[in-house]
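Reading is simple: each integer encodes one residue's backbone shape. The lines below illustrate:
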Amino acid sequence: MIVLLSVGPGTLESTMTEDLSPAERYAAARRRAVEQATALASFREMYDFGLDPFQIEACQALEAGKGVLVAAPTGSGKTIVGEFAVHLALQQGKKCFYTTPIKALSNQKYSDLCRRYGAEKVGLLTGDNSVNSDAPVVVMTTEVLRNMLYAGSQTLLGLGYVVMDEVHYLSDRFRGAVWEEVIIHLPESVTLVSLSATVSNAEEFGDWLDTVRGDTEVIVSEHRPVPLFQHVLAGRRMYDLFEEGEGQRKAVNPDLTRLARMEASRPSYQERRRGRMREADRERDRRQRSRVWTPGRPEVIERLDAEGLLPAITFIFSRAACEAAVQQCLYAGLRLNDDEARERVRALVEERTAAIPHEDLHVLGYYEWLEGLERGIAAHHAGMLPTFKEVVEELFVRGLVKAVFATETLALGINMPARSVVLEKLVKWNGEQHADITPGEYTQLTGRAGRRGIDVEGHAVVLWQRGMNPDHLAGLAGTRTYPLRSSFKPSYNMAVNLVEQFGRHRSRELLETSFAQFQADRSVVGISRQVQRNEEGLEGYKASMTCHLGDFDEYARLRRELKDRETELAKQGAAHRRAEAAVALERLKPGDVIHVPTGKYAGLALVLDPGLPAGRANGHRGFDHHDGPRPLVLTAERQVKRLASMDFPVPVEALDRMRIPKTFNPRSPQSRRDLASALRSKAGHIPPERARKKRSQAADDREIARLRTALRAHPCHGCDEREDHARWAERYHRLLRDTSQLERRIEGRTNTIARTFDRIVALLTELDYLRGDEVTEHGKRLARLYGELDLLASECLRAGVWEGLAPAELAACVSALVFEARVGDDAMAPKLPSGKAKASLGEMVRIWGRLDALEEDFRISQTEGVGQREPDLGFAWAAYMWASGKGLDEVLREAEMPAGDFVRWCKQVIDVLGQIAAASPAEGSGVGRAARKAVDQLLRGVVAYSSVG
């Protein structure tokens, strides 16, 4: 059942006791007496505010023994429903697990529940911490619960309720499958409480939960407890995004529309610079620019402060820009705290950071960070030390930090509401390109604005940018389309765990119950209807292409064959030219001076590294087999870039040679400038060779000549309406092709998850991890290894690749299983530890190569989210140094990595080392001992600081 609620708290009860007859008053009194006897009544007494209708509805459903899905906006208080599940479990003598997607949110929830129920009743389980794990209420990350279910942990005994906070995470392409695994595998006796942001397909998700978990009540609330007002800040003026008025559909503020038109009519910077403006145009431009500009960051904070709109979170989609924003505010002399607040900030910061060694403070930028905090200004992003982030969150909630510059990761779950949210731009880097933010992302970000019980209203402020479209912004602000899409895919670890518990046949049936398959099956219905419509259209097209002179279908086939043959020859020619270009690239050596023929970096360049596949140490899957050489070059414009084969459509030859100084550092602007200057002096006068155009293959092709002769001899060739018939024939075959594709899609979407599972099982059988329904010893080891490169880790253990390694060397090797570089391919090959560690890393890459080829044979594709990516060696040197006892300053300098990233990767390495220690043979292997020692050696200094408050 879907319950749509948009009313505020208190509206249901306010009219109940007015104008009632005696009989009605008696009935109302009876109802109240019944309500007082429920668990909900005692739960409501624990709060000093009334519950909203949607919270009451969900709690009543829970008490009636139903599962619930609650979809409500950020800040609406849906976690109250999760806390009621905790209350019910304690009252009934059962256990309740409260799961969250991220450790920071687990820590926050653990602290909240400890304050309410006492530390003795609440436990915490994350990858880093285990506190009171046998308590009746345990807060944990979702992965921990998944691992418990597969291991058949005794902790699951007596479990009555599971709360899945932020359940919309199941659409996350990297981790979303974990949520579905938990939902599918939880015992039937467990009541599931799913808490989600507002999603547009809650009914579909609820139907699936009904199917796999039994009776589930779906409750959707669109009501924001604190109303949100949208603004655009342009120059000195704050514009409302929408006109004031009644009704659901609000009109865009006409002042903003006029502003956009005025901006569009302004000459560009280049035109002003070239002087192509009349005096009257220049005067008008001066007047316009005096009214419209994008305010600077300190200016925005000052304006919000003057308007009474602080505290505010400004979302900037770049870590470096967040840090730069704080510095800009400090240089501008901004002070948002008085002397008393400054003292309180300093006292809390010194208390929370007391465990950090004094010598590390300078390395971590502590003093600059503290200065910003004392002034009420801070950054918040994943590159920060976890302790620093937690301090910023605590100070912000206490009102001692009033302006935070954050990346979008802050929008995910952390309880850190503000009065205002500022968005600098509506475009962000998505890992591949700069793309507009989606309505769902806009809703998630602006949902932070408006603190319940503190603010009367929240404010979302978007900064004016040249070219901004107010209608587009209004669409983002007014759209509530945030569909939940499953990202579920079977993995190797999942396969062996399922087969061990249920056997192959039952495992296949379980996977068919996933939300991914549920959505795929529903989408087939619409595609089938489209196929029926297409078949009706094909009949009409066939009638229209009929020719009285002969079989026009046969004539059209000859035309298509001719066109296809010409296209094929053109492709062969292009492939031949690419092959020649690739051979020429393979001949390049460091120091060769070349002319890049095309692309963004066309022109003179110096080869720094030929980028041959065999020398690849840190890249992405598919490079070895498909991309060919990718030379790293220094351009004449001082840029160091990794080029691709598309930059060389024709063969390239070395024009000259140059010596590259041993001291050359591609990251040093001065080094690049000096070498680029020498390059221009050495070869700037040499003209590039012009490629000679070759005779087309089509001119001498016998098949093309035969088809042209057959066309001219066909009866339909002489038809006066030939081209008209041909157009209908083209439409017919285009629609026929589209229909065939739709039919293949229907076939492809039926049993997709099970077919992928079958391929994974076949590969695991080939490697002797499975024998029918039996899981071998190798398979049992794989069942204890979780992670993206689970099979590679298992194969390395099996082959003894890590035997005889020292703990620090093992840490370096294991880092390759978890690390993924944020930078692209234009980075130099990473520095590696020498000796045994380097040899083991090389062997890991060779084993990955064998697995990659095997996955190709079994049609297991990483593009579908299945399979093993290439191990990334970029963190090996940093992990080795830290495990060897080197100082933080030296390690961070060598790693060229923020402290927060370094700590996060170290903790992930520690997590996998723990799995390896558990999965290693009990006797005769030193890997388990080395893994445990490596954990101890990594878990020191900044990495060891407890994140539990």
